[in-house]
Write a structure and sequence with these properties.
The protein has 199 residues and is an alpha/beta fold. It has two domains: 101 residues, Response regulator (Rossmann fold, 3-Layer(aba) Sandwich), CATH 3.40.50; 61 residues, Arc Repressor Mutant, subunit A (Orthogonal Bundle). Helix content is 61%, strand content 12%. It has seven helices and five strands. The protein has a five-stranded parallel sheet with strand order 2-1-3-4-5, sandwiched between helices. Strand 4, helix 4 and strand 5 form a beta-alpha-beta unit. The termini are far apart.
């Protein structure tokens, strides 16, 4: 497998000494673009300015409010997040995964572990994003097919065409107007609803 390119990494940690351990591990692994944020206030702005490939969150003492704040960030920034915590419980871990945290590591901050954990976080995030895109595409295709079927039904009912004739007419119109078939179908459905031609 080809080595991954160097990542831009944003570290969120109030404890400078702990952040330095992560930073050292990242630099030894070849990741030179590392930025440390000590305060979670304004984190989304920091992320937008630095544009990291991955975010590392290190929490010494995670409480519910702090975890929820990070989960809100993770939902809005759409980046892989690796979260290191000193201790955890099943609810916190479940909430982290549900919020999109790609790697959740309990009591395991050693600099030599940082790189493989980040690589895993990025790969998991990419795999999850790919699945999300595929699901969105499938939903979109299904919605498009439903619109085409509705438009076909309208033509069949209003013009007395067979299913094949209705489809051929829409396809020919799409080619003539240099539009997609689904766009012609949407126009038909919209026009029919405006003219009261739909059931």
């Amino acid at each position: 497998m080809e080595p991954r390119p160097a990542l831009a990494v944003l570290i969120v940690d109030e404890n400078r000494a702990r952040a330095a351990i992560i930073e050292e591990g990242l630099r030894e692994a070849g990741h030179e673009r590392v930025h440390i944020v000590a305060d979670a206030q304004g984190l989304v702005r920091e992320i937008e300015a630095f544009r990291p490939d991955v975010i590392v969150v290190d929490l010494e003492n995670p409480n519910r409010d702090r975890l929820e704040a990070f989960f809100q960030v993770s939902r809005s920034v759409r980046r892989p997040i690796a979260m290191f915590v000193d201790r955890s419980d099943a609810d916190s871990m479940e909430a982290a995964i549900a919020a999109g945290v790609s790697a959740y590591v309990v009591d395991g901050l050693k600099k030599e572990r940082v790189k493989p954990i980040l690589d895993t976080a990025v790969l998991r995030f990419e795999a999850y994003s790919r699945l999300e895109r595929e699901l969105q595409n499938a939903r979109s295709e299904l919605a498009d097919r439903k619109v085409v079927e509705r438009a076909k039904g309208l033509l069949m009912r209003m013009r007395g065409l067979s299913e094949e004739e209705a489809y051929r007419l829409m396809r020919q119109t799409a080619m003539n107007e240099k539009k997609k078939l689904v766009d012609i179908a949407r126009s038909l459905v919209t026009a029919a609803s405006l003219l009261g031609g739909e059931d």
